[in-house]
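Supplementary notes for students who missed Thursday's class. We covered one full example, reproduced here. Read the sequence, then the structure, then the short commentary at the end.
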Amino acid sequence: MRHVTLKFSMIILLAALTISTVAQTFQQPVLISSAGQSADVKLVKMLASRENLDANTILMATLSDLEGIKTLIIVPGFSSKGLGAAGISQEDEMNRVQELVNAANSKEIPIILMHIGGNARRKGQSDAFNALIANNAKHMIVVAQGNEDNFFTDIATAKNIPLEVVEKISETGEPLGKLFQ
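Structure (token representation):
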């Protein structure tokens, strides 16, 4: 019985977090960037395009790329292959992302986290990037498989950040588009 009550409470909490997002809208133009250099950022670029967002993608965005930007979408997820292709270390990437987040916060540019990589972009080296972005996000859209342990739910609850959990990557476009209406 306790398990059913806990599960019901989580459903109510997720519904409340999702409902609270209706009032918050984000502005364009949008910058999409990676945190960890995974290929997931390319899918988010495609989803933003399908939603007709005025969005530019810069994989290794820096402070200067925020000029004129109204919303920053960051796609976290560690990829050793991506870091190798970029010619940087994990430490260099973490420093770049931290500076980007700090700059966005100082310029009052809201950050949207989009975690679409599921289990492949969780734990291990990915969670340092996931935690950094989640703790600084104004909204999170997450594929359920990447939140099976409630990693994003726990941060969203503690920081009162709206969180939308969807089952498939293909379902992330619609909630993303609604944030800009």
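Commentary. Strands lie at 30-35, 55-57, 71-76, 111-115, 139-143, 163-166. The chain has a mean pLDDT of 88. If anything here is unclear, bring it to office hours.
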